[in-house]
Amino acid sequence: METLEKVLTPEEQFQARIDADIRIEPKDWMPDAYRKTLIRQISQHAHSELVGMLPEGNWITRAPSLKRKSILLAKVQDEAGHGLYLYSAAETLGTTRDQMLADLHSGKAKYSSIFNYPTLSWADMGCVGWLVDGAAILNQVPLCRTSYGPYARAMVRVCKEESFHQRQGFEIMQTLCEGAPEQKAMAQEALNRWWWPTLMMFGPKDEDSPNTAQSMNWRIKRFTNDELRQKFVDMMVPQAEFLGLTVPDEKVKWNEERQAYDFGEVNWDEFWSVVKGNGLCNHERLQARVQAHEEGAWVREAANAHAAKRAAREAVAA
Amino acid sequence: MNQSEWPLWEVFIRSKQGLDHKHVGSLHAADATMAVQNARDVYTRRLEGVSIWVVESKHIHASNPDDADAFFDPAADKVYRHPTFYEVPDSIKHM
What pTM was computed for the model? Predict the structure, then answer.
């Protein structure tokens, strides 16, 4: 046994641990590419939580009741929390919070393109919870078993909290669909706008996703983009039917043979255009983030000054 | 870039009275008071805790994972430390 182990390179030993489903922890040896890929993936995920607060924050002051307002506040606060869990997980890989935020603010780092679409009506709050968080959950549940320990543990917490997000979104949609014809029309109109962008959340088609194979091999991804997209459609079409809404895709049809829904082709030109920064809200989102960060600078400095002053006072007293 | 990043703290939470504090993650804060308050907001929004410890991360010393095999090896061959090592006659009760 011992001689066999000695023959294995560090990479091979690492892969053997992954294959045996043994989690990798921060101080363990890992290939540089694994570390880099994870830093990119986890920080993008954290950025998405942070930017994801903006489209919903837009509706906090205009929520239709105190109950809805309290729920929306709690949801947005959760998203800040999810961002923090994830930034912490990324920091265990050797990057810093300042570096990650600088990359977000300079436009170097990406976040989920879905947040570059505007939230125009109250029904959009329903769609964001029901569809967008529904898609996020499909992405995130498998990540609870991802190979990097701190990431997997953060995802367990995120997933526990995320299901309330989806349910409150569905409840908003259901309330609108059971309401006046105008309310139902509002729900349908929002679904029409959000359906395709949500399908894009799973990323490019498998054949256009060259990193998928390596990520699956490292178990930092456990299903392909197309597999997750199919799962999502299979999950959501019956829910839309329950609401009495129509998914804006004429090609959606149950395929008895595949035991899954057939559906139309995503507009990939739109997808790449939004990724490259030309979505409706790319500029506005980034500007809001940078502004919040800059306007908070004095708070961070004041807290540091306060901490230093208190430490000095305690040193004198001691 | 902001060069005054707040220090990193590790957070430990007692989920209920009678259980031990368990590591849940980390966060940044200017001082211990702020770290405890932030830990409450970040890690106990759904009553996950009744008590919080925070320790500045730089104060934690850890064993080296590269030495784990040799480091923990001395415990591997001492089966007699476990009760199942000993055979007790069937007729003996309460042992």
Answer: 0.92
Closest Cα to residue A135, out of A203, A189, A74?
A203
Q: ipTM of this predicted complex?
A: 0.87
Task: Give residue-wise pLDDT tens across range A281-297.
Answer: 999 999 999 999 999 99
Distance from CA of A27 to the nearest CA of B (A): 7
Give the H or E element holding residue A127.
helix A122-127
Which H or E run contains A261? strand A260-262
Q: Nearest CA to CA, how far is A279 from chain B (Å)?
A: 27
Q: Which residues of B touch A77 (CB under 8 A)?
A: 41, 45
Q: Residue ranges of the domains in chain B?
A: 3-60
Q: In CATH, which of 1.20.1250.20, 1.20.120.140, 3.10.20.520, 3.40.50.300 is domain B3-60?
A: 3.10.20.520
Question: What are the contacts of B86-91 at 24+ separation with CB within 8 A?
Answer: none
Residue in A98, A76, A95, A82 with CA at minimum distance from that of residue A45: A82
